[in-house]
Amino acid sequence: MTNQELERMVDTSDAWIRARTGIGERRIAAPDEATSDLALAAAENALQAAGLSPDAVDLIIVATATPDMPFPPTACLVQHRIGASAAVAFDLSAVCSGFLYGFSTAVGLILSGIYRTALVIGAEVFSRIVDWEDRSTCVLFGDGAGAVVLQATDRKRVFASYLGSDGAWSELLMVPAGGSRMPASKRTVDERLHYLKMGNGKEVFRRAVHLMTKAGLEVLSQANLKLEDIDFLIPHQANIRIIHSLAQKLSLSKDKVVANVHKYGNTSGASIPIALDEAVRSGKITRDDIILMAAFGSGLTWGAVLLRW
Ligand code: ACO
Fold first, then answer.
1. Among the options 3, 239, 260, 266, which is catalytic?
2. Are 166 and 302 members of one domain?
3. Considering its fold, how many domains does the chain have in total?
4. Domain stops at, among 155, 189, 207
5. Average pLDDT over residues 160-170
6. Model confidence pLDDT, tens digit, residues 107-152
7. 78 alpha carbon to ligand 1 midpoint, in Å?
8. Which CATH number goes with the domain that contains 97?
């Protein structure tokens, strides 16, 4: 969906969207596609890239805020469809930080020796929870999925992980209805309460830059590495201005920043693995590069992971 198509739906303009967000277009799932369909494609591509068969996978985590349904877990649907019958599968909810929360959870479980091979998937169909009559939010989001395979090795390649949460700001980004607090009713539907609400875009912007910077510096310090050691920054793709501000705070030049928000918009928990996948497949990221991933989202939640590819 291009900005021009949005111009015909709400009072907005291509110029406004590009100037404020850097977004030019976003992908929208087909009416018969749900999150597990996108997650399945990403999982199959990741397994193929890793040269592994589904039997090798013993852990599947799907990070999503838009599961196919409240339960069963979307991860179980993916597990069945890829045929990873030996794997334990569950969903994890940390919205736009979900992929890094899932990644860090998988790393912890692998380091503890409980599991050996994990599939971590970020998958979202935000187009189903976006209010297409609200111009302040509908221009920002898109649908997508990305996945990584993590496996135990002798040499440590994930140097550090740092996650943060602050529920005091839970009202900044939320979907008010559809849960146990406000179950679906005619009123909640009439009042459009099943759609994403963003309280204060500027506050979200400020906190995103501040908290991702803090998380990035924290993992560097944990790993005893310096900003100059980073080959690539893969930030959550919410807004190109947030990405550039973060890069500036971390003194990273633009050629070290992976950004594709212009093509996909904000795909929430899917944005980092999609960007990582594109950077690897295009040859930009090569073996042994040091990568900093940083995320921020509703909750509030945020975090960073530092690794050697
Ligand atoms: N088209 C045209 N005008 C618009 C649109 C639109 N789509 N949306 C808002 N406007 C108007 C506003 O009504 C306002 O008009 P007014 O001055 O007459 O009141 C004007 O544009 C300026 O609005 P601001 O909110 O001041 O614009 P700002 O520069 O802050 O940009 C934006 C808004 C893009 C939302 C920015 O604040 C932002 O990116 N914030 C972060 C949002 C985000 O990334 N959320 C998700 C991250 S967390 C996660 O991924 C879950």
1. 266
2. yes
3. 2
4. 155
5. 97
6. 999 999 999 999 999 999 999 999 999 999 999 999 999 999 999 9
7. 35
8. 3.40.47.10
Pocket test for ligand 1, best of 2, 12, 204, 237 (most atoms within 8 A of CB): 204
Residues 106 and 150: their CA atoms lie apart, in Å, by: 8
Instruction: From the CA of 198, give the closest atom in ligand 1.
Output: 45
Atom from ligand 1 closest to the CA of residue 204? 41
Q: How far apart are CA 142 and CA 140, in angstroms?
A: 7
**pLDDT for position 154:** 87
- 216 closest CA partner among 99, 104, 158, 302: 302
Q: What is the per-residue DSSP string for 40-102?
A: HHHHHHHHHHHT--GGG--EEEEE-SS-SSSSS-HHHHHHHHHT-TT-EEEEE--GGGHHHHH
Q: Strands of 117-125's sheet, edge to edge?
A: 88-92, 59-63, 117-125, 143-151
Beta strands 158-165 and 301-308, pairing class = antiparallel
pTM of the model: 0.96
CA distance 236 to 230: 17
For residues 289 and 154, what is the distance between their CA atoms, to the nearest angstrom? 18
Q: Using one digit for the tens of pLDDT, what is the confidence trace for 22-39?
A: 999 999 999 999 999 999
Q: Single out the catalytic residue among 96, 138, 239, 260.
A: 96
In the chain, the amino acid numbered 53 is S
CB of 268 shorter than 6 A to ligand 1: yes
Rounded CA-CA distance 27/239 in Å is 16
81 bridge partner residues = none
**What pairs with residue 266 in β-bridges?**
141
User: 277 falls in which pLDDT band (50, 70, 90)?
Assistant: very high
End-to-end distance of the chain based on CA atoms, in angstroms?
33
Which residue in this structure is represented by tokens 């189903």? 128
226/121 same-domain check: no
- Residues 93, 73: one domain? yes
Question: Does 96 participate in catalysis according to the annotation?
Answer: yes
